Amino acid sequence: MTEKFWYKVARTIAKSGVFPVPISEHLKELLQNLLTEDQAKFLLIFKKPSMTLEQIKQRIDMEEETIITMLNTLMHNGIIIGAKSKSTGVMVYRLMGLYPGIFEYTFLRGTTTERDNKLAELFEKSFQKISEGTQKNYDNIINVFKDLPPTDRTLPVEKEVEVGTEMVVPFEDIKKYIEEYEDIAVAHCYCRHWKDLLNDPCKLGAPKKNCFLLDKSAQFAIEQNFGRRVSKEEAIKILKEAEDYGLVHKVFHVHSDLDRGIEAICNCCKCCCGILNFYSRGALPLHTVSSYLAKVDEEICSGCAICVNICPMETINVDDTLAVVHEEKCIGCGLCAYHCTEQAIHLKRTGPRDVFLLPKRIKTE
């Protein structure tokens, strides 16, 4: 197939995603390693990201049995996801964007073949082009970023929340989130696995089998062998282990809509997390929703700097033997409070607030 053909395939996938993605040679090479030519040609029918089988049949001259075989293969490879509509019961097939989407499903199984190593490198090169594109067009593209919805919601470590007379509602309580869903799957953390493949392992030595999928996303992951089913009790145990390693709970809502259900819970470290990585390398903004802020008790704080080292946002410093939190960057994850040996930090509830940080400006030589 021609360069023009692969450019069209890349554009189709880019349009299915949330963030702007430059069509680079690395991206086209990546797709050529992810897809056969027949699969790539099939994807070009997705003029809109989601379609039913009947809609697909209207767009392509192919027998239904062949279409279903193609869809099953693409779902197994994490290029398309399929789930039944709750309102109609009809199966809906959705083409994934590059990130979030195809990137995650490529590494969810935690396999370590030569192909995985090559894909990891090609994703890294494609992501670097996103960073370069953002930096080159910074003043123009930031307005596009401001119109995008938050990618996630940050959940605090439960026992460190200061609630006063107000109850912590399920929307902000990680354990109650788990209790709401019957279908729960756990898979490899795709970010830490990707970093392992790049020979840049997690600096915390954090476990990798702690990426959760819920409800329809869990059903899909279990059916396609991206993850395994776990009980609520096991899920909570894994979440507790994540807290002990200093990982941040992040919740992802269906279609990034905070009024809809949850499809995933990640447990993130600042050295590997894709969202934090894109922010720090100047590729994408960090946009999350949190209902808490870290507060320091000046009378108790000893200035030990444990919180400085654990903070994923690098938003705490020690000034004259006292920890100082720069609130505009605080995502209310609660790790500083959880790991403070003096119990000098607590989380104060603020109500839902947007934390929006533009991509870092990267200095060039």
TrEMBL record:
Domain named 4Fe-4S ferredoxin-type: residues: 292-321, 323-350
Pfam families recorded: Fer4_10 (PF13237)
Protein name: 4Fe-4S ferredoxin-type domain-containing protein
